[in-house]
Specification:
The chain is mainly alpha-helical. The protein is built from 8 helices and 4 strands. It folds into 2 domains: 40 residues, no CATH class; 199 residues, Methane Monooxygenase Hydroxylase, Chain G, domain 1 (Up-down Bundle), CATH 1.20.58.220. The strands form 2 sheets. The chain has a two-stranded antiparallel ribbon with strand order 1-2. The protein has a two-stranded antiparallel ribbon with strand order 3-4. Helix 3 runs parallel beside helix 5, helix 6 packs parallel to helix 8 and helix 7 packs antiparallel against helix 8.
């Protein structure tokens, strides 16, 4: 059986296309013999699901970190004491491990389901979510007594919505998201981000016009800005996903 290859350079990556004879070989056993080395045709062509698995795992860690923050804020609202950031650190470390594994897999895989630069851009955007969330936890524990009894219900609702949309968008990539669905989901993220901006301005207005000490104003202002920044990170991830969908449409 004769095997021939046609190779084209696309966006800096070598993309191999095969003749029907190679496709027939893949169908016959999903493996070929070349100079005594057995190899998987599916793995060679990047048909395995590892990149989608890793991206979804990263998005799940981002979502989990947001839920850790929600739990922490709920405890503070009920005036419950807390001093443990282990869950935040674990989410951030796990996401970093996933990001590093993605980079390693990209260096070993000839053809990927998405362009390498797109995978790296999305992985980076996702990692910034738990990293920023952990910073919020650290800031809160600097002076948690200043937050006892304070409600974060509206921030929590927006954070939860943004993280859930990002997770759903990442999961849709495996299925082959259509442009309309991607745009609708991204529009939801943009709406959440806009609502978060308005809420931050409202909270800052009340803070600056209230009877608070300078220390209390600085502490709460920094916290409000970081909470809004997490939603910005979710929006950024959504924008990357939309760009990927548009590119492959």
């Amino acid at each position: 059986m004769t095997r021939s290859y046609a190779v084209a350079a696309v966006a800096g990556r070598s993309i191999a296309t095969t003749t029907p004879s190679l496709n027939g070989l893949a169908a016959a056993g999903d493996c070929g013999y070349n100079g005594g080395t057995m190899f998987s045709i599916s793995k060679f062509l990047g048909h395995d699901e590892k990149f989608y698995d890793l991206l979804e795992a990263s998005a799940q860690q981002a979502d989990s970190s947001v839920h850790h923050l929600i739990d922490l804020l709920a405890k503070l609202e009920k005036s419950e004491s807390t001093s443990d950031l282990a869950a935040f650190a674990e989410s951030r470390r796990e996401d970093k491990r996933i990001t590093q594994q993605l980079t390693e897999e990209l260096s070993k895989t000839f053809i990927t389901p998405l362009e390498g630069e797109d995978i790296q851009a999305l992985a980076s955007a996702l990692y910034k979510i738990p990293k920023t969330v952990e910073k919020i936890g650290e800031r809160i524990l600097i002076c948690p007594e200043d937050l006892h009894g304070r409600s974060f219900r509206r921030q929590v609702e927006l954070l939860d919505r943004a993280a859930e949309v990002v997770l759903a968008m990442v999961k849709q990539l495996r299925k082959g998201t259509d442009i309309r669905t991607a745009r609708e989901m991204n529009a939801r993220l943009q709406t959440v981000e806009g609502d978060a901006d308005k809420l931050e301005l409202e909270l800052l207005h009340d803070l600056y016009h209230g009877d608070h000490s300078p220390k209390h104003i600085i502490f709460l202002r920094d916290l409000y800005e970081l909470l809004e920044k997490v939603i910005d990170r979710c929006r950024d991830a959504g924008n990357v996903i939309l760009q990927i969908v548009l590119k492959y449409a």
